[in-house]
Amino acid sequence: MKKSIKTSIRFLSMIMVVIAFITTIILSINFVDKNNIFSVTNIIVLVVLLVIAFIAGTINANLIIFPLKKMEKGMKSVSEGKFIDTKHLKDYTSLTEIKELIESYTSMMELIKKNSFDLNSQQSKTEIILEHMADGVVAFSISKQVVHMNKSAMRLLNIEKSYDTFDKITSKLKIELDFDKIMYLPNYKSIETKITVGENALNIVFVPFFSDRLSPMGVIMVIRNITESVKLDNMRKEFVANVSHELKTPLTSIKGYSETMMTGDLTFAEITRFAKVINQEANRMDRLVADLLQLSRFDYKKVSWKKMMFSIVDLAQSVCEKMQYAAKEKNHHLECIVTVEPPNVYADRDAIEQVIMNIVSNSIKYTREGGTITVYVGSINGNVYIKVIDNGIGIPPQDLNRIFERFYRVDKARSRKMGGTGLGLSIVKEIIDGNDGTIDIRSEVNKGTEVIITLPTKVKA
Ligand SMILES: Nc1ncnc2c1ncn2[C@@H]1O[C@H](COP(=O)(O)OP(=O)(O)OP(=O)(O)O)[C@@H](O)[C@H]1O
Ligand SMILES: [Mg+2]
Question: Which residues, other chains included, contact 11 with Cβ-Cβ below 8 Å and sequence gap of 6+?
Fold first, then answer.
């Protein structure tokens, strides 16, 4: 309503009150019939006075009711999330009490508006966090209905939105849990369980949530993917079991042979043979412990690389010479070929020598008698590579991506017979990573294996 109209209404109301007042006086003085109270004149005067009073009262009442109605409308619209501007409402009335009421109402509305804004922004912040977190979160109301489920929860549990109750979700996951038991857990504790969904190991926590008055409002389910930590835990257990086993085998031989020797009734030839076995087994243990210590130094980052520029051709040729004896023992043909003269590489020379020796020794071990092992050295697009190719027994495809794991062997018995512990390639991988190189293995069963290494030629900035 425009200000001019409001002012006119107020003016009209005042006029009406004044008219009523004047009329009453005039009528009382001039027209009232004092002899007969119920005379026609008196009744007419009364009616006129009542009409004037009614009109004046209605107008005045409207000036009070209008702002009140506006405030009522304002309150109703708050529940729909709308806020009506009530600041100018006090212009409609001249009554101090109503003005004060409007002022209180307006400041209350401002407070509600601010709180509602804060609440909304808090809510949208919470929703964004929930949607983008890696952990899954599902909230259930007291009636077991899903009130919120983030994307991670759907992905981890492999469910869609149609799983909208506690019972549907827990029965799909085969979790036997009583909702009420979670709701009324003593001391607000939580219930934790571990399940597997597809390839993922999941840790699930159910925890009740409460209102301000600490009465239970529902249950929150938090889902965490623990696949990696379970894998690591299994690897750790496997590692301990492997170390114990690898140490136990030579120790049993050493113990057995030394006990037999202690009986005293052995020939010199037997003693020599037994001592040889003991020595072999002790060497095996020595190698194993040395490998484990080297890996442990990698793990604790205790290795300081002595990096320098050196000729990879010279190194590869010297390794081939050193390994000729072992290759000849199995009638292998081992040679080193330089395809394109490569630039010098920047790495730890001794460590790279260990790498090439390890790979060539694998080729010698895992190639049947009379095989061919070739070490190619060259460069392509400025990258220096060393390629070791054999025509040995090869590695099955399912084992290829596990070959760098500690103690991993395709054929444990065969590898052990050849003195292998399954640590060689894991050490190789650590050295290559530490020297900013790459390593790749391609293999085909009964055809052969190809190991390709690249090394940097420049000092890393
Ligand atoms: N050239 C190859 N041909 C066929 N199999 C191979 C070859 N190189 C490695 N392997 C397979 O990979 C496994 C792991 O190799 P790795 O060098 O880590 O261990 P190892 O040779 O058994 O023992 P270690 O090197 O510790 O003496 C071997 O046991 C073998 O099964
Ligand atoms: Mg090896």
Answer: none
What is the pTM for the complete model shown? 0.66
pLDDT in tens, the chain (461 residues): 445 555 655 666 667 667 766 766 766 666 666 666 677 777 777 787 788 778 877 776 776 777 777 778 877 877 777 777 766 777 767 777 777 888 888 888 888 888 888 888 888 888 888 888 999 999 999 999 999 999 999 999 999 999 999 999 999 999 998 998 888 877 668 899 999 999 999 999 999 988 776 788 899 999 999 999 999 999 889 999 999 988 998 999 999 999 999 988 889 999 999 999 999 999 999 999 999 999 999 999 889 999 999 999 999 999 999 999 999 999 999 999 999 999 999 999 999 999 999 999 999 999 999 999 999 999 988 889 999 999 999 999 999 999 999 999 998 887 777 778 899 999 999 999 999 999 999 999 999 999 999 999 988 76
CATH of 230-299, one of 1.20.810.10, 3.40.190.10, 3.40.720.10, 1.10.287.130: 1.10.287.130
- SS3 at position 223: strand
Domains of the chain, residue spans? 3-119, 134-225, 230-299, 307-455
- Does residue 394's CB lie within 6 angstroms of at least one atom of ligand 1? yes
134-225 belongs to CATH 1.20.120.530 = no
Ligand 1 pocket: which of 243, 245, 362, 442 to mutate (most atoms within 8 A of CB): 362
Instruction: List the residue whose alpha carbon is closest to atom 31 of ligand 1.
Output: 410
Backbone angles phi, psi at 330, to 5 degrees: -110, 15
Q: Ligand 1: does its nearest atom lie under 6 Å from the Cβ of 455?
A: no
